[in-house]
Specification:
The chain is built from 7 helices and no strands. It is mainly α.
Length: 127
């Protein structure tokens, strides 16, 4: 792999892990952010705000990393394609992408349908 492609892949991996995946932790476990004694209303607001932030992070990612190639890494899927495809499964991201970034969603779906990867995705996300 050429150094620029490797750097781009690492940048994307860190972006998803530090931003998108971290925000899913907030969405799934809001008491970790606001404390165990928080009201249901506050927990709901944290969840809603977290989801909105997560979707904004995915918009930024799609705009920066989708270069119009079949996959994020170029002609074949790489580690960044795999992480993006998995993490985008959560917290309503796919529905948002369908409406706002359909070309990026199509790229993720190509990853899921890739001959070397389709069985793995079908096993973990059937239907």
């Amino acid at each position: 792999t050429e150094p620029a492609a490797r750097a781009r892949c690492l940048h994307g991996l860190v972006y998803i892990a530090a931003n998108c995946y971290a925000m899913i932790g907030v969405i799934d476990f809001p008491p970790r952010v606001v404390g165990e004694g928080a009201s249901k209303a506050l927990l709901a607001r944290v969840n809603t705000a977290g989801r909105a932030r997560l979707h904004e992070l995915w918009r930024v990612f799609a705009d920066q990393f989708d270069r119009g190639t079949p996959f994020l890494g170029g002609a074949e899927p790489d580690a960044l394609d795999l992480l993006a495809t998995v993490v985008s499964q959560w917290s309503g991201t796919r529905a948002m992408l369908a409406q706002e970034r359909p070309a990026f969603l199509a790229l993720l779906q190509r990853v899921e349908q890739h001959p070397r990867l389709a069985a793995v995705f079908a096993r973990h996300w059937p239907g």
